[in-house]
Amino acid sequence: MSVVKVQSVSKWFPRRDGESLHVLQNIDLDVPEKAIVAIVGASGCGKSTLLNIIAGLVTPDRGCVFLNGVKASAFEDWRSLTYMFQEDRLLPWRTATQNVAFGLEAAGVARPERRERVTETLALVGLSGFADAYPHELSGGMRSRVALARSLVTRPQILLMDEPFSKLDPSIRTQMHDEVLRIKELMGMTIVFVTHDVEEAVVLADKVVVLNPRPGRVRETQEIRLPYPRDPLSPDVAEQARLLRRSL
């Protein structure tokens, strides 16, 4: 079953000179239930635009997106989908607890349930001891964990990530990869993420979709059949990354 299905999607953006920039062309993408799919490609190939279309933040000019078999324009259960951005976007005047609770507040979840779910989710990402800390009191890795917790507290079925770990040191990034894989198994999520980092795609994904610019179009799709966990320094990961890099 495809949890996310992108069918013949194309997108143009207007330019100041009155012309249109063709960003995506006839994109087809199938994401099976509980799979992890990476979207890679050179800068400007439309990776983030494609993710935003899946998230319902941008409307395609042609084609359509299906979520759980329902056309996105008719999809109602948007709480089952969450988006982790490249920037952590934490509110500096809110503690870790208050930042994680933000989406639940907006959804009208009652205070006792909010408190319980936030506490559980902070524990899930290993931040129970920092519930009352403000963003400026946290390291970069901790801030990423708070952002991840904020995405997970709604108990999503689909997690979208736009290069969320790109600014972290390699060792911290590896820790976050392990956390994502661990939590994905616990929650049974489907994950679609964008990355420039080929090794990151190989370490995390079951399937990697390579986009060519411009306009962005699918060049090829590679299945990653290595067993988890995947050591980013292992010869198998290095060889798979080498093969993938040849497609870029």
Automatic annotation (TrEMBL):
CDD domains, alphabetized: ABC_NrtD_SsuB_transporters (cd03293)
Pfam families reported for this sequence: ABC_tran (PF00005)
GO molecular function, one term: ATP binding
InterPro entries hit by this protein: AAA+_ATPase, ABC_transporter-like_ATP-bd, ABC_transporter-like_CS, ABC_transporter_ATP-bind, P-loop_NTPase
Sequence ranges assigned to domain ABC transporter in this UniProt record: 4-238
Keywords attached to this entry: ATP-binding, Nucleotide-binding, Transport
Transmembrane segments: none
Domain of life: Bacteria
PROSITE patterns in alphabetical order: ABC_TRANSPORTER_1, ABC_TRANSPORTER_2
Family that this chain belongs to: Belongs to the ABC transporter superfamily.
Listed name of the protein: NitT/TauT family transport system ATP-binding protein
Source organism of the structure: Methylopila capsulata
